[in-house]
Amino acid sequence: MSFDGIMTRAITHELSHTLHSGRISKIYQPFKTELVFTIRSNGKNHQLLLSANANFARIHLTKEKHPNPTQPPMFCMLLRKHLEGGIIESIEQVDMERIIEITIRNKDELGDIQTKKLIVEIMGRHSNMMIVDAKTMVILDSIKHVSIAQSSYRTVLPGQPYKRPPEQEKQNPIETDEAGILREIDFNQGKLDRQLVNRFSGLSPLIAKEVIHRSGMSNRQSLPDAFLSILSDVRNQQYYPQMIEADGREYFSVVNLTHLKGEVRSFSTVSEMLDRFFYGKAERDRVKQQAFDLEKLLRNEYQKSKKKIIKLERTLTDADKAKEYQKKGELLTANLHLVKRGDPKVEVIDYYDESQPTLEISLDPLKSPSDNAQAYFKKYNKAKKSVAVVREQIERTKEDIHYLDQVIQQTESASPRDIEEIREELIEEGYLRRRQKQSKKKRKDEKPQLEIYTSSTGLPFYVGKNNKQNDYLTNRFARQDEIWLHTKDIPGSHVVIRSTEPDETTIIEAATVAAFFSKARQSSSVPVDYTKIRHVKKPNGSKPGFVTYDQQTTVFVTPDEDTILRLRSKETT
Q1: What's the DSSP call for residue 441?
Q2: Number of neighbours of residue 221 by Cβ within 10 angstroms
Q3: Integer angstrom CA distances of residue 279 from 50, 64, 522
Q4: pLDDT means per 10 residues in the chain (573 residues)?
Q5: What is the C-alpha separation between 408 and 118, in angstroms, rounded?
Q6: Which of 499, 466, 31, 472 is CA-nearest to residue 283?
Q7: How far is CA 558 from the centre of its chain?
Q8: DSSP category for residue 473
């Protein structure tokens, strides 16, 4: 991840320009390590996202909608007490470090002016946010507490003086010149990009590689020139927000990355770029942690069902020997005069074969000839009955496999709210036991929330992200002549267009969303069926989310995340 000192400088400059003198009107904490501030500035409301997520720590303006918990955490309540209604006096970066200090002026309960600092440290798993008194620099609280047992260098606890992370004894690149660069670099040592990262603050390996690439042969003249060229833009606050997709990975930067060969997408602001890059990533990380036990359970059940199919098919093969048992019983009955008690076998003429070959029949020496014949008839009857049972079990197991495959797909594109509904469904289906903490039941009249999308021509369509939502959308929410979509023979979401005669553009865009929220989201030319709701039926006793349909038309689309973002509404039903 390349949220380095240069990125911090760029976002600090942008936020300072946009939010300076803004008033904080609302604060909420949607997740354990994330905050969202609503700030009124320059006649507009802005949403500022601050995250101390171990994998996706960041700060930027966002247009994404985040949930507001009904019970705010203690840290959030403290921030509301001290910061809501406050005015942002300054937003500053500490040197070239990944530390931002937001100074906020507000009145206390007595009406006296108080100044607080919200300090944001973007440092991987050590990322943190804390509110401190601007005069005493004493910590009021932090989103993560760090005790002396966790860090011998500093504690981050209420009442403790704020101490910055340990100095790395690196040079500030903004303040350096050609001579300063040459003093820090040993050309005989090699690995010049690593040397740049180790000697200068605020540089990520990505930027260091760009410096080396631009310098060509990287000698004492070319390397300082390349480095200073990049630093010149940074000093002058000239940035080029962009995302690059290269070698199957996505990168983001505010510096033109000429060493990466791939598709480049430019953005008008740093926040817009960060909002796009991190879209869904942090949420999927939370879902992965939240749904780890579910995914493990589902994949285990899926593999068990696959093995069960193999065993049942072997049993069916054995059961198909029923006619062979019947034939041997009848041939023995017709040839009882040839068999004596104690014979281990007998050879008879097979009258059922036109060539009438000799057939050897194994016998139980302890049984009479008649009992041996009856034993074959019993095997015949048992095998005959088991064929129907085994075939029925095979069909049920295939249904289980299809269902599990579908739920696995749903967990991969689920939000935290969707995961809770999937967990509830698995409890109802008997795959999971209800936890004691889950004893509180949802109200019967509480409806699943559906994601809303709007086509380019203005028509709304709705998406079910799990089976509870799919059942509600298709069987209760949708109207008889509205258009229903689903990927053809591929596990995925149900989609309903709120129109009886949608235009072709809406159908293609709704099909694109259906393909994106399916097992084929990484594929191209995905087949998607659409038909009227009246032609979609849910068989009695079928698994959640399962339907049959007819009179469909098929279109082929390629899922695209940018299209999904463009069409997605900020609302849910």
Answers
A1: P
A2: 12
A3: 14, 8, 17
A4: 89 96 96 95 96 93 88 95 96 95 92 94 94 96 94 93 91 92 90 93 93 91 94 95 90 94 93 91 78 87 93 79 85 91 91 88 92 91 81 90 90 82 88 64 69 94 94 95 96 96 96 95 94 95 92 95 84 64
A5: 41
A6: 31
A7: 19
A8: I
Distance from C-alpha of 141 to C-alpha of 131, rounded to nearest angstrom: 6
The CA radius of gyration of the chain, in Å to the nearest whole number, is 34
346 contacts 371 by C-beta, under 8 angstroms: no
| Alpha carbon 483 to its chain's center | 28
Q: Distance between CA atoms of 457 and 415, rounded to whole angstroms?
A: 27
Q: In what order do the strands lie in the sheet with 483-487?
A: 553-557, 526-532, 483-487, 495-497, 460-463, 451-454, 568-572
User: Given this model, what pLDDT does residue 366 score?
Assistant: 92
**How far, in Å, are 8, 77, 482, 506, 531 from residue 501 at the CA level?**
50, 49, 8, 10, 11
The pLDDT of residue 548:
95
User: Tokens representing 401?
Assistant: 């496999």
Token pair 């909608």 in the structure block, residue: 65
- The runs of H, that is alpha helices, within 336-464 are 369-412, 416-428
From residue 385, alpha-carbon distances to 328, 392, 417, 426, 515 in Å are 18, 12, 47, 33, 43
- Per the document, the length of the chain is 573
pLDDT of residue 259: 93
- Alpha-carbon distances, residue 296 vs 119, 251, 315, 404, 413 (angstroms): 39, 30, 29, 12, 16
State how far the Cα of 86 lies from the Cα of 88, in Å rounded to an integer: 7
Q: Which run of H or of E encompasses 289?
A: helix 281-290
Q: Answer yes or no: are the C-beta atoms of 399 and 308 closer than 8 Å.
A: no
Give the pLDDT score at 198: 93
- Helix axis angle for 416-428 and 281-290, nearest 10°, is 30
SS3 state of residue 106: strand
Q: How far apart are CA 409 and CA 306, in angstroms?
A: 17
> How high is the pLDDT of residue 429?
87
| Separation between Cα atoms, residue 8 and residue 253, nearest integer Å | 11
SS (H, E, C) 150-211: CCCCCCECCCCECCCCCCCCCECHHHCCHHHHHHHCCCCCCCHHHHHHHHECCCCHHHHHHH
**Nearest-5° Cα angle at 42, 37 to 44:** 55
Residue 249: both structure tokens together: 């990975």
Beta-bridge partner residues of 460: 454
Q: Six-digit token pair at 141?
A: 């609280």
| Three-class SS state of 122 | coil
d(CA 490, CA 494): 11
